[in-house]
Structures are given as structure tokens and as C-alpha cells.
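Ops channel
N.P.: pipeline sanity check, posting one input/output pair.
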């Protein structure tokens, strides 16, 4: 039979159960022993398998790192566990589509670098002969006068119209970005 959801008195108070505590032998009087765990705040809590332990939500999220902890919010709804790193900083949780991954720009293939550079404003000037280092620097955000000087077309509205624009090959672009031109 499903348990009824019980709201906590304080809107910032969550509850935590620790299922592994149920593996311990009970005290002679039949009550749970419980296990003491510290939250990131340094506060120690006695956690039980059957009796919820109330604590502030800021401490309760510490226990979202493992499915052995049942964390419930102030409404009595279970908060799903997440990896320890994500629990430490919930703002960094990113939902990826199947087949997506996160990587450093340097890990991309030359074809992937070129494709991404071509999608950015000013990136259309790059081609398959453009050096890997140039593409990486461009994707890392080389901007300002160097970036604008690489454009082959200047517009009158451009606030940097005083910068000379020239057509350059990949080698010249590399030298310019390295500062040896």
C-alpha cells in the first residue's frame, strides 16, 4: 500500500531515509540503530531506514548522491538522486540528447572544428586548408581587431572600419594569430 505524502512543517525542511541503515541489527528494544552521516555543512545527522530525519534542504541535497538515500522535499515528494558532482552544484546539471557528449574544443576532429567555425560569424572564411591551431583559437574567441582584420569585407557601419581588411590565406591567418606577421 503506498505511503501517504506528509508535508513538513517548515517549507525549507526536507526528510532523508538511509536504506542501508536497515541492514544493521536492531537495538534490544526493537528500534532502529541508525547511522550518523555528515552533510556538507558539517552537521551530523542520525539517519534511519524507516524513520525520516528532518533537515534543511541545503543539507538534504548532500544525500542525493546515492540511491540508498531517499530524499523527500517539503511536499513529501521524492527528489531523484543525482551524481555527487551534480549534487554539489545543481546549476551545472545539463540534459543531453542521446548521442550528444561534452568535450573540449581541442578534442574535436579537424572536420568538426571547421564545421563549428563556419557556423560562427566571420567563420565562413575558413576552409579545409585552415590550420587546426587557427580554428581552435577562433573557437576559443579570438576577437577584437584581429578578428575584424581577418574579414574580407568591411561595412561602413562597422565601428572598426579603420582596420584594414585583406584577403588572407590560412598561413597568413596563422601568423597573424600567433603575432608573427
Amino acid at each position: 500500500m503506498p505511503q501517504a505524502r506528509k508535508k513538513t512543517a517548515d517549507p525549507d525542511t526536507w526528510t532523508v531515509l538511509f536504506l542501508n541503515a536497515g541492514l544493521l541489527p536492531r537495538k534490544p528494544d526493537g528500534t532502529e540503530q541508525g547511522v550518523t552521516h555528515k552533510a556538507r555543512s558539517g552537521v551530523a545527522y542520525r539517519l534511519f531506514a524507516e524513520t525520516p530525519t528532518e533537515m534543511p534542504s541545503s543539507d538534504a541535497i548532500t544525500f542525493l548522491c546515492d540511491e540508498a538515500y531517499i530524499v523527500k522535499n517539503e511536499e513529501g515528494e521524492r527528489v531523484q538522486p543525482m551524481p555527487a558532482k551534480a549534487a554539489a552544484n545543481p546549476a551545472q546539471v545539463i540534459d543531453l540528447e542521446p548521442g550528444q557528449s561534452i568535450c573540449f574544443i581541442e578534442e574535436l576532429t579537424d572536420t568538426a572544428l571547421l564545421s563549428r567555425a563556419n557556423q560562427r560569424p566571420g567563420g565562413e572564411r575558413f576552409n579545409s586548408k585552415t590550420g587546426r591551431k587557427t580554428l581552435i583559437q577562433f573557437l576559443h574567441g579570438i576577437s577584437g581587431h584581429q578578428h575584424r582584420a581577418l574579414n574580407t569585407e568591411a561595412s561602413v557601419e562597422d565601428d572598426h572600419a579603420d582596420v584594414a581588411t585583406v584577403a588572407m590565406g590560412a598561413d597568413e591567418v596563422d601568423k597573424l594569430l600567433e603575432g608573427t606577421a
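N.P.: looks fine end to end. Residues 1-5, 143-167 have pLDDT under 50 and may be disordered.
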